[in-house]
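#help-structures
NK: newbie question, is this the right format to request a structure? protein is Bidirectional sugar transporter SWEET
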Amino acid sequence: LLLRSFSSPSLPFLLILCFNSRRNHLPRSTRNPATMNNTPHFVFGILGNAFALFLFLAPTITFKRIIKNRTTEEFSGVPYVMTLLNCLLSAWYGLPFVSKGNLLVTTINGTGAAIEIVYVLLFLVFAPKKVKAKIGSLFAAVLSVFAVIALVSLFALHGNTRKLFCGTAATVFSIIMYASPLSIMRLVIKTKSVEFMPFFLSLFVFLCGTSWFVFGLLGGDPFIAIPNGFGCGLGLMQLILYFIYRNHKGSNIAEKESAMEMGSQKKPKQGGNHTHGNGNDDPGAGGPPTAINESPV
């Protein structure tokens, strides 16, 4: 139910209208784009870039394992493809001819898009034929969706209409991506174990969401403030859960129900030489989608 609420396009749209309504009552000087380029605004943008880059690079441990074993095992490529779409939309929104004062949004999301493309291509190289076809089709669909949104906004829309169209698209996908850790949070509550919710990833999700939330507030931009406000709140919830259950040993349900990091297609097998649980030395494996699958902006 919570995921549906976050995924509903009407919710961010209504929040954006409320944000703009309040913003229109501010003194004219505070609404001037020139006043947005102040030092705090820039500093929080730089911090957001740094925290987001950490989240983008977190899956490199997973891909080191994939390359070493020359197989994607039970890893899923879907989160990487969807994160790519989110990065492309956010990078496009941050361009000067779409929105003013958001170039730092474009820099980090452009970097993130390049990183995600590398992840997707590596996944396609080592994935089984059936999985490769599925991820390849999804990859093509994501590029097509982005191309349509970019072309429509570039040639059919102008001014505030262009910003509203691109910003709404980026906001909806950002909220959906930020809501993805709800499944791991449910697992933590059910098993009373934080084994599959690393502290530092949860911390960086909170810091990243907070940085971009403040960046959006200082810049008077609801399309940045609203989704990252959700991200900040969800990151805080993860940290609270971590401190509640950090000393609990939990139950073996965690191993039975957990998926691999960044999403799994199957539950891990029991018995035999099982390497996805506690005995795995690879810190990038053995956990379901956590803070890695986040929208940095």
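mod (FA): yep, format's fine, and the tokens are attached above. Residues 1-19, 21-36, 253-262, 267-292 have pLDDT under 50 and may be disordered.
NK: thank you!
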